[in-house]
């Protein structure tokens, strides 16, 4: 009997989503520049790659601490510098 709480299926879907999200985030950190070059070449060309790329995941969590109850649209925050 369903009690109105989270179903096993919902919990499984959320677990599967998390399992795919982590490798994607790791790949993005390792291959950010090639990814941008492939998918967003105009953006990649405007970034100053001589400066450090900083991933600000902890800062993003502070901005959106309650992501369990809402859909999250951004889960990667990256500080880059524009060529100028």
Q: Summarize this, please?
A:
The chain is mainly α.
Overview of the molecule:
The chain has 84 residues and is mainly α. The chain has 4 helices and 2 strands. The termini are far apart. It is 51% helix and 5% strand. The chain has a two-stranded antiparallel ribbon with strand order 1-2. The chain has one domain (8-79).
Measured by DSSP, the beta-strand proportion falls in under 5%
Multimeric state of these chains? single chain
For the sheet with most strands, the description reads: 2 strands, antiparallel
Number of individual domains? 1
Distance between the termini: 63 Å
Q: What is the overall silhouette?
A: globular
Reading the helices and strands in chain order gives HHHEHE
Structural class: mainly alpha
In the sheet with the most strands, the strands line up as 1-2
Tally of contiguous helical segments: 4
Helix-strand layout with pairing:
Elements: H1 8-30, H2 32-39, H3 41-45, E1 54-55, H4 57-63, E2 78-79
Antiparallel strand pairs: 1-2
